[in-house]
Amino acid sequence: MTTPILRGTLTPVAADVSAAPLLVLGPSLGTTSALWETAAAELSTRFRVLRFDLPGHGLSAPAAEPFELTDLADAVVALVDSVGGGRFSYAGVSIGGAIGIELALSPAGRRLDALAIICSNSQLGGPDGWLDRAAAVRAQGTASMVTGSSQRWFAPGFLPRRPDRASQALDGLLTIDDESYAKCCEALARYDRTSRVSEIGTRTAVVTGDVDPVVSIAEGDALAAAIPGSRRYVLADTGHQGHLERPEDIAAIVAELVPSLRTPSDIHAGGMAVRRAVLGDAHVDRATAAATPETRDFQDLITRYAWGDIWTRPGLDRRMRSAVTLSSLVTAGHWHETGLHVEAALRNGLSRAEISEILLQTAIYAGVPAANSAFGVAREVFARLDAADETDQAQEEH
């Protein structure tokens, strides 16, 4: 077996290229590095982004000989060395994530600053399935994979919602070299690092889609549990191409793996944007205007730590964060903040019925008196919003 030669695209940051850390992005089988384009644009404000293609995919030449995933990992290191070498972070999808696991378990693992394993696992499917697919592609070409891939790759509704992105992926499948695709399948049939992932010492994130038919939530949980200290993320309404379906979320997760990339001003700006989105401009403007020399540092602390560090994390969506926040506030009896976050929960997409269910749940775990007080606060918020709506409607009619 020989090590393939991989080709890719390096996108430098706008500032000093030599000072920016290198991030390598690995694709999934049957796709090219073009599917990383939106996430790469987000990440290129912080990293030198190096996207590579698998053998016979995109820019990389077809494979002349069989290879293993360890060979692909070695080829990634050779590509990194060709653009300057040194330390790097890595994020990969499906077979790209498996390559990342190989990197972390190889001597190159000492060079890895961070690893994001996306929609991937220490073993992907069974050997027979991969060998059958290799035979099918050799007999009928990659065109025979389009229907199955459209079902595996995307969450239900993604095709009609984003036909541009879906067609980009499926059309690209038709351009893949059949024999190289088959060789990738055969390499995956021999791939199994389940017994070794506990050896990974790199700062790691494990990311799966909630409706991914290839790597289930339970499989992602097991992988994360096996990798010491790993972070776990599940993306809502996401299939097997998380970097294409949720590029902004993936970019945020990857960037978060290297905290030093976020400057204090970045954290404050990001926190202020989320704070305004959740609480509303009017509330934030009032709080900012009311700040005194004695309270200004406290306002800054809230913006940076509550909103910049916690509410910006991609591990929970804002609906879930609102639900957790309401439960916590009711339990602690913080009634002014409860009213504020009832309105914020509505802004984050929770319905009044869902808010009532959350408060009903707190009656069991925080006590009936606390829930009773919370229902009173919510009733006042709903009444105020209804009155404001009626006023707006009356003004429109006149």
Counting DSSP H or I runs of 4 or more residues, the number of helices is 18
Assigned CATH class of the largest domain:
Alpha Beta
Main beta sheet strand tally, sense and closure: 7 strands, mixed
Q: Structural class from helices and strands?
A: alpha/beta
Please give the CATH architecture of the largest domain: 3-Layer(aba) Sandwich
Strand content: 5-15%
Number of strands: 7
**What is the percent of helical residues?**
40-55%
End-to-end distance? 80 Å
Oligomer state equals single chain
CA-based gyration radius: 24 Å
Which consecutive residue ranges, at least 5 long each, have pLDDT under 50? none
Q: Could you give me the name of the CATH homologous superfamily of the largest domain? A: Alpha/Beta hydrolase fold, catalytic domain
Overall pLDDT score? 91
Count of discrete structural domains:
2
SSE string, helices as H and strands as E: EEHEHEHEHHHHHEHEHHHHHHHHH
Helix and strand topology:
Elements: E1 8-11, E2 22-26, H1 37-43, E3 48-52, H2 69-82, E4 88-93, H3 95-105, E5 112-118, H4 127-140, H5 146-153, H6 158-161, H7 163-173, H8 178-189, E6 204-209, H9 217-226, E7 231-235, H10 242-245, H11 247-256, H12 264-279, H13 281-289, H14 296-310, H15 318-332, H16 335-347, H17 352-365, H18 368-397
Pfam family, one: Abhydrolase_1
Keywords: Hydrolase
InterPro entries: 4CMD/NDH-1_regulator, AB_hydrolase_1, AB_hydrolase_fold, AhpD-like, CMD-like
